[in-house]
Amino acid sequence: MAAQQMEVKAVFLDRDGTIIKDVHYLSKIEDIELLPLAKEGLALLKECGFKLIVVSNQSGIGRGYFSVDFVNETHKVLNEMLGGLIDEFYFCPHLPEDNCSCRKPKTGLIDEAVKKFGINKDKSFVVGDKESDIELGLNAGITPFLIVSRNNEELLKNTKAKRFFANLYEVARWICLRGFTE
Ligand SMILES: [Mg+2]
Ligand SMILES: [Zn+2]
User: pTM value?
Assistant: First the structure.
């Protein structure tokens, strides 16, 4: 049983700017817009055996911009757009000053998912578009990859990411061809 559990691998994905367009505190369902090749990338990762788990900071809840119900509805609609590829959505509703243990780059959300699914962190990845996503991976002991546009020189120069890619499909191709953390 334990050996079987160790086979579970996952890709922990940021939401805004990674799967969907970052519109800065998404507060309308109609503003959900998939990024180019995001769905194709997620489908490929699923095909090569990864659980797909979204981990995102939604401090718009704490700021009173939208409710927990709205975020849950957003995730339901998003997963319908993705044909149900996402296995679970986790989010932090808190403000930075709440000093909770789940706001990225803290690892509370990942810790919860790892426990629930019995995920092997050595075979898993974190993917996001901000340096805080990279720090999340490093803090959790999971290889972090960055999605970044080639002309974001500032981020490219300073990131601690192991690798960077232009979109989720490029990430998926690399992960599925190589299959292992470095
Ligand atoms: Mg993001
Ligand atoms: Zn939190």
Answer: 0.94
